[in-house]
Amino acid sequence: MMLSILYRGPLSSCNYGCPYCPFAKTKDSRETLEKDAAQLLRFVQFVQQQHDIQFKILFTPWGEALIRKHYQEAMTTLSHLPNVHKVSIQTNLSSRLNWLQKANVSKIALWTTYHPGETDRTAFLQQCHQLDTLGVAYSVGVVGFKETITEIESLRAALPAGRYLWINALKKQADYYTAEETAVLQGIDPHVAYNMVHHETLGKACKTGHTVISVDGDGNMHRCHFIKEKIGNIYDTTFRQSLYPRACTNATCGCHIGYVHLEHLQLYQLYEGRELERIAPV
Ligand code: SF4
Ligand code: SF4
């Protein structure tokens, strides 16, 4: 049995100050960080004990978690477990990367996001280069603000040709992009069209709740990050009974970490097993 878990603990702080983000330059209290570390350790121990499950794990913290030693250690431990197929994390890639030398890098994958204004392109690319040297798989992405498009083009030109660059499209405002801007973005990210819409999902089959779940620090299971109904708890020995096919109960789904699991979009084929970390073949 293969189970993908999107884990999000109580940590909600970030060392960057992106102006659109509620976690910009926030600090967690020592108590919150200790609780986050203790809950993460419990999660790692849970994974360790489920010998009959192969796990794909994506950490999706509210803020930046990879600067924290307990995430680096958790990822390292998980990467060495025989029943972990993959362990990934969403990160701004600002952390030191030497911890990866102790990890089984063949099982690590990073979902990295470049934040112009918070770091410069050269510094970000140096981090990417270090990942290349270490042999770590990763995707690179950028939020597609209109005023960032030129910088995204420069980043694309500077990245190795085989490195996928995804773009998170702005979709709150209809017709936000001109036709020309859309064409430029599609030239950079051939799959950005999937991210430019809120997919209509009510009643549609989605793998979440069956082979994919969202888990919080207390072990509470939700089918995904977007539907609040609790479906179980991984620390309850009967948690497997909560896993079965379900139709989506939300009207729409607009984030990669959600719609990638919709059956009818068949995006698992497109991502060839790297849907969690958002690495598409280019
Ligand atoms: S790096 Fe991510 S979490 Fe941190 S402020 Fe920017 S958008 Fe928010
Ligand atoms: S389509 Fe999106 S909102 Fe609906 S169940 Fe799947 S991940 Fe959740």
Biggest β-sheet: strands ordered side by side in the sheet:
6-5-4-3-2-1-9-10-11
Net shape: globular
The name of the CATH topology is TIM Barrel
Label the CATH architecture.
Alpha-Beta Barrel
Please state roughly what percent of the residues sit in beta strands, choosing from under 5%, 5-15%, 15-25%, 25-35%, 35-45% or over 45%: 15-25%
Average of per-residue pLDDT values:
97
How many beta-strand elements? 13
Associated small molecules: iron/sulfur cluster
| Spatial gap, N to C terminus | 29 Å
User: What's the main sheet like?
Assistant: 9 strands, mixed
Estimate the helix proportion, in percent. Answer: 25-40%
| Domain module tally | 1
Low-confidence stretches: none
SSE pattern, N- to C-terminal: EHEHEEHEHEHHEEEEEEEHH
Structural class: alpha/beta
Number of helices: 8
Tell me the name of the CATH class. Answer: Alpha Beta
